Amino acid sequence: MLSWWRAVKGGEAPVRFFAYREAVNAGLAAASAVVAPSHAMLAALRREYSTPFSAAVIPNGVDPKRYHSGPKCPRILTAGR
Question: What is the pTM of this model?
Answer without folding.
Answer: 0.66
